[in-house]
Amino acid sequence: MTQHIAKPLRLVVSLSGGGTTLQNMIDLIGLGQLPARVELVIGSRPDAYGLERAKKAGIPTLTIPRKSTPPEEFSLRMHEAIRGAKADLVCMAGFLSLWTIPDDYIGRVMNIHPALLPSFGGKGYYGHHVHEAVIRTGCKVSGCTVHFADNVYDHGPIIAQRCVPVLENDTPDALAARVFEQECVAYPEAIRLFGAGRLRIEGPRVRVLPGEPQDARSASR
């Protein structure tokens, strides 16, 4: 069920690739099923197709090329862009670049990972590398994880997880498709809960609050 909020959340989405997660958000917003507005899409690569998806949807874009930008400058430009867009929430959507989250955005940056963290996370575990590792190790289940990001790869308090089976004779492509189906459910739901003020970080955990919606920024307290 879509959560009611007084006004749409202002989102900044960051990506490094095809932008399928962004497209899911755009589609749900268009259907009235996600009470948010994407104010800006930031790409870490100029050839990221997700930037084209944003342009087709009329969303402003910004490219901050990670390979040619020193780390401190990269983070600074991210900060400036996010604050300039007055983002309530930053959604990393296949964003492969580590950046330093400023203090005023701790608890206001989400990430989605195509595995059940803390397994199969960290530097080098992205895209099909994750699904190949899951299959290679003989896991019987996989899935996706939405979490509040911190300044370590694939780390931070977990908001939601959804599982899928790993089938006999599975392929990375087939597993990736099943996981992505669950990503399309888990990430929007996490955004709705944030917008409704129902997420509270308590140490390493995220508590989902019952009752009436509160201020969306309660998640960062």
Primary descriptors:
disordered N terminus, alpha/beta, 9 strands, globular, 30% helix
CATH topology heading of the largest domain = Rossmann fold
Report the principal-axis shape.
globular
User: Which structural class is indicated by helix and strand composition?
Assistant: alpha/beta
Relative helix content: 25-40%
Count of discrete alpha- or pi-helical segments spanning 4 or more residues = 5
Kindly give the count of domains: 2
**Averaging pLDDT over every residue, what do you get?**
92
Query: Using DSSP, what is the number of strands?
Result: 9
Strand order of the largest sheet: 3-2-1-4-5-6-7
Distance between the termini: 25 Å
Q: What's the Cα radius of gyration?
A: 17 Å
SS strand fraction: 15-25%
User: Could you name the ranges where pLDDT drops below 50 across 5 or more consecutive residues?
Assistant: 1-6, 213-221
The CATH architecture of the largest domain can be given as 3-Layer(aba) Sandwich
Order of helices and strands: EHEHEHEEHEEHEE
- Level-1 CATH class name of the largest domain: Alpha Beta
CATH superfamily caption of the largest domain: Formyl transferase, N-terminal domain
Largest sheet: 7 strands, mixed
